[in-house]
Amino acid sequence: MSKMIHRNLRHTPPTAVCAFGMYLRDSKGNTYLDASGGAAVSSLGHGHPDVLAAMGAQMKTTAYAHSGFFTTDVAEELAQRLATDAPGDLNNVYLVSGGSEAVESALKMARQYFVENGEHERRIFIARQQSYHGNTLGALALGGNEARRRQFEPLLMDVARVSPCHEYRYRPAGQEVAEYTAGLLAELEQAILEVGPHSIIGFCAEPVVGATLGAVPPTPGYFKGVRALCDKYGILFIADEVMCGMGRTGTLYAIEQDGVVPDLVALGKGLAAGYQPIGAVLARDHVVERLRGGSGVFQHGHTYNAHPVAAAAALAVQKIIKRDCLLGAATVRGTTLRRMLRDAFGTHPHVGDIRGRGLLVGLELVQDRETKRPFDPDLKLFAAVKEQAMDCGLMVYPMGGTADGRRGDHILLAPPFIATEADLAQIVNRLSDAL
Ligand code: PMP
Question: Where in the sequence is the signal peptide annotated (predicted)?
Answer without folding.
Answer: none
